[in-house]
Amino acid sequence: MNVKNGDFVLVDYVLKVKDTGEVFDVTIEEEAKAANVYNPEVIYEPRLIIVGEGWVIKGLEEALIDMQEGSEKTIEIPPEKAFGERDPSKIKIIPARELTKQGITPKPGMRVNINGALATIRSVGSGRVIVDFNHPLSGKVIISKIIVRKIITDTIEKIRELIHMRIRNVPKEKFIISRIDSILTIEMPEETFLMDDIKYIKRGIVRDIEKYFKEFTSVQFIETYNLKRKEQPKEESKEQTTK
């Protein structure tokens, strides 16, 4: 079976800048350690990609087409299919006070949010700051190693991976997913009950199911609370032992 547009695919990859060899995105723990970019707070595992949805850079997504489960390739991705060419018009000069009013002390290399857009500070001086709204990797050629771990065909497994994409810190096997006709039921594990923003996460899951699975008309989330009662002390035996 070859990967085609619209497929749900679990993929491992390593992305690095060709010029410098800097690894900036990696899903494999051993590769992260080898490149000295390992972060203990990151969950290293294959990522779900729905081919054609633009979840990864265009060059990587295009390279997946016709790959087989278990296959691996290394490709070179030009800027126009990675993070775009550098655009000189996206380099601006702003007054330093615009940043200081936000409590930001501007320094070269710092990433800042300006009117909802991310920018990199290139230089600071004479009360002015040069900011660059280009992506930090724009204009760069990217080298990518890609491994297709699995092409998912089962509907329940696809939904499980979509849930896992939104809730990575809970094992995906703990979500009990079932269907009766057009009704989908998701039994949530206890670890999710008090999770921050869980209601928004559920809403996102519903949107995903609505978009990718036309056969369902409703989604039910179930939370089961196990009652923890203290054991009542056993009554002491009334029988008395006499000597």
Q: Could you give the distance between the termini?
A: 83 Å
Q: What's the average pLDDT?
A: 94
Uncertain spans: none
Mind summarizing the main beta sheet?
A: 5 strands, antiparallel
Query: Strand-and-helix sequence, N→C?
Result: EEHEHEEHEEEEHEEHE
The appropriate CATH architecture of the largest domain is: Roll
How many domain regions? 3
Q: In one word, what is the shape?
A: globular
- Under CATH at level 1, the class of the largest domain stands as Alpha Beta
Whole-angstrom Rg: 26 Å
Number of strands: 12
| CATH overall fold name of the largest domain | Chitinase A, domain 3
Structural class from helices and strands?
A: alpha+beta
The proportion of residues forming helix, as a percent range, comes to 10-25%
Give the amount of beta strand, in percent.
25-35%
Number of DSSP helical runs: 5
Could you write a compact summary of the structure shown?
The chain has helices spanning 29-34, 58-64, 97-100, 155-166, 198-212; strands at residues 8-17, 23-26, 47-50, 72-77, 91-95, 111-114, 117-125, 128-132, 142-152, 176-180, 183-188, 218-223. It is of the alpha+beta class. A hairpin with a 5-residue loop joins strand 1 (8-17) and strand 2.
What does this entry look like structurally?
With 243 residues, this protein is of the alpha+beta class. The protein has 3 domains: 1-85 and 137-152, Roll (Chitinase A, domain 3); 88-132, Thrombin, subunit H, CATH 2.40.10.330; 154-231, Alpha-Beta Plaits, CATH 3.30.70.2210. Helix content is 18%, strand content 31%. The strands form 3 sheets. Strands 1, 2, 3, 4 and 9 form a 5-stranded antiparallel β-sheet that branches. The protein has a 4-stranded antiparallel β-sheet with strand order 5-8-7-6. Strands 10-11-12 form a 3-stranded mixed β-sheet, covered by helices on one side. A hairpin with a 2-residue loop joins strand 10 and strand 11 (183-188). Helix 4 packs antiparallel against helix 5. The longest helix is centred in the last third of the chain and has 15 residues, at 198-212.
